[in-house]
Amino acid sequence: MSAFAIACGGTGGHVLPGLAVAQVLRQRGHETTLWLTDRAIEADVARDWSGPRIHIPSDGFQYGASWKTVRAAWRLGGAVWASTRRMRDAPPAALLAMGSYACFGPALAARRLGVPLVLHEANVLPGRAVRLLARGAHTIAASFEESRYYLQGRPVVVTGMPLRPGLEAPDPGQRLPGLETARFIVLVMGGSGGAQALNRAACEALGALGSAGSGLGVIHLTGPADAAWVQAAYEQAGLPHFVRAFHADMAAVYRHAQLALCRAGAATCAELAAFGLPALLIPYPHASNDHQTANARALEKADAADVVLERDLTADWLREYVANRSAQPETLARMSAAGRKCAPQDAAARVADLLEAAACAG
After folding, report:
1. 178 lies in a domain?
2. What are the residues facing 120 on neighbouring strands?
3. 24 Cβ contact partners less than 8 Å away, ≥ 6 residues apart
4. Can you give the pTM of this predicted structure?
5. Position with higher pLDDT, 192 vs 32
């Protein structure tokens, strides 16, 4: 058996798929070490990981001339030096870098020491770390087929997005509290931080539909700032609802909903596709390189989702959209089937296969 390293620090969107691959490697008998930074969110997301961890503090990439740019460059240089020192003592058979700024130090160290490097790109548009590291990578695992266009001449394998550990189907008879009378359930979520524009438009639109006695119900994951007023608004409208700032059992959420209104982060897109949940995607307009719009358009092209830009989103438009889609079960079934076709099975295992192949080749 071999020893592998996974650099997946920075955000939950990088740690969770990294953990999924780490669990597969450990099940195959390999020793696996997570390389993280010192961010608090990592400790929370990876709290169930009992294997070894290495922490290398790092800052994100900065643009322009400023003291923040200088500090970030200094910290990244320090991350490369610290990673090289730690990796030289016990070089892994191969290193998987999940594409965040936090993977840059360990990935450059791996290249310096001749350790085979596998990259994973979660979004359609490759991020800066992947673009900078692609030339020296043994393989680049991609979530979307469309990424090939932006990585021409590189060894790209489409594996899909490794899903977060524990995303298993719940008991089909389970019902989320507050939704017992609902016949058509809409899921609203804007990511871990919430999305105020989406929260307001959805709350107004769905509240109006609920007042009309449509049999509508809503699961609304608001983020930390908006849960109280969203809950009060649905109560006033008399709309069956399940409102939480966060909810750990996302499998139950996906299984209960018939339509999702949400952002278009890579993990969200992968999970919607895996569960065959039709969606209206409202990309976060300030995402770097507008990568969420590219993700959303890929699902739209596959007929698995509809897309509206945030600047075009109004409560009246959204009310009409939900009313129309809820009356079109054939369209929703077609979108669901298309989504499942976009979701490669066993993505974590496919990425693990690439790591093992890189180790053998190295």
Report:
1. no
2. 141
3. 348, 349, 351, 352
4. 0.91
5. 32
pLDDT tens by residue, 48-105: 899 999 998 876 655 555 666 666 666 777 888 999 999 999 999 999 999 988 899 9
Q: Provide the 10 A C-beta neighbour count for residue 330.
A: 7
pLDDT of residue 19: 95
Same domain, 152 and 191: no
To the nearest 10°, report the CA torsion of 133, 136, 138, 143.
Answer: 20
Residue 156 maps to a domain: yes
Angle at alpha carbon of residue 147, lines to 361 and 352, rounded to 5° = 35
Mean pLDDT of 251-265: 95
| Helix boundaries (H) for the chain | 12-27, 40-45, 67-89, 104-113, 128-133, 147-150, 196-211, 227-237, 250-256, 266-275, 291-301, 315-326, 329-341, 347-361
Q: Give the residue among 304, 280, 272, 293 at the shortest CA–CA distance from 123.
A: 293
**Residue 272: HSE in the Cβ half-sphere, 13 Å Cα cutoff:** 35
Averaged pLDDT of the chain:
91
- H or E segment to which residue 176 belongs: none
What is the Cα–Cα distance from 116 to 361, expressed in whole angstroms?
8
- Is residue 177 situated within a structural domain? no
Q: Which domain holds residue 35?
A: 3-160+345-361
Residue type, 27: Q
pLDDT tens-digit map of 286-321: 988 899 999 999 999 999 999 999 999 999 999 999
- Helices 315-326 + 196-211 axis angle, to 10: 60
> Residue 169: is it exposed, middle or buried by C-beta count within 10 angstroms (0-12/13-18/19+)?
exposed
- Flag whether 35 is in a domain: yes
**DSSP 8-state secondary structure symbol assigned to residue 88:** H
